[in-house]
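Q: What does the predicted 3D structure of Protein PIN-LIKES 3 look like?
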Amino acid sequence: MGLWKLFVVALMPVVKVLLITAVGVFLAIERVDILGMGARKHLNNLVFYVLNPALVGSNLAKFITLKSLVMLWFMPLSVLITFIAGSALGWLLIKITRAPYRLRGLILGCCAAGNLGNMPLIIIPAVCEEKDSPFGDANICNMHGLAYATLSMAIGSIYMWLYVYNVVRIYSSTASDETKPDAIPEGLESASEITQGPKLFLKEPSINVGVENFELDRAVSKGKAKVPFPENIKQGFQKVLDKLNLKRVLSPSINGAIVGFIVGTIPPFRKALIGGSAPLHVLEDSAYSVGESAITITTLIVGSNLLKGFRGSKVPISVIIGIMAVRYIFLPILGVGVVKCAVHLGAVSSDPLYKFVLLLQFALPPAINIGTMTQLFGSGEAEFSVIMLWTYASASVSVTLWSAFFMWLIK
């Protein structure tokens, strides 16, 4: 197949995403106002708590088995490499551009986390259904492609909420703390002084009192120093758990992934729920039907959020260009090297579709869930909208070109 035909095959899925995104932009304009701020908030909650977990869980249960999980063991490592390399490049970008502190968590998240869920689930089936697809029979390609894309989405969700969520949370909370007044201007009395009146010193503090306080402080410090060693470990471990915020780590999507892995890989559950002859197959079919709508609705939300990007925000142009360079130049080049080395070492099977998915993971735009995180913390929503506007607009060209090159490379 010639390079031009590969380009056309790669272009069709991207055009599909752009068309759905354009509908989202149209529905969000003031004259239509169907996807206004309130509607987006409710849809985000619906996607976060219902649709994404159903999509991840039902797809994993349907397409992932214990045998396929063993065969695809390299994919979690590949996705981890994208997060580590993206974080390193993002930190380098922060140092070069001297980005404001409030944007650092957003920059690291956009460079580290690609859209490993919706984009592959749209691109791969569309590529399989093209007449000139290099991946053979459309039905087999679609079945295997959905398994690869679903595993990619599940792994991406786990890394997102374990790592990116905490990075965005730490920088958002620190940035909000910096905006709070930490001192009272000179000449302005505090509320307690106004309500309580002037302070009256009934007795001058003596030297003996100071000595007693000093001895008391020494006793307290000694008591703290004598805390048993296992207790120190316990306290340190508790602090780490508090920082990680396990309630958010075990997000609905991750819970759905856990359920999907259990159903897909444990034979008794699989026989009871998966397949037309399974006695409880209606449960899996219902979850799959609910999850299918997640892709379209999330893409519409992306389009409606892009509208805020047209209004502009205080994001340096160097930061936007840097994020696009990381996601569309440096990471894809790194991905080619990683996959080539994996094939050479025998860590990746000869399936060209599997290699294509691994390569595609390095060339995707920033994850949409970062926008959900900024909405949860109430910080960086406008800035992320601007970043999304430019990265997703350029993705129409970048993802198409890289997809065509990847298909030519593995052919």
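A (community wiki): The structure tokens above were generated from the sequence. The CA atoms of residues 94 and 104 lie 7 Å apart. Residues 3-176+241-410 form a domain with the Na+/H+ antiporter like fold fold (CATH 1.20.1530.20).
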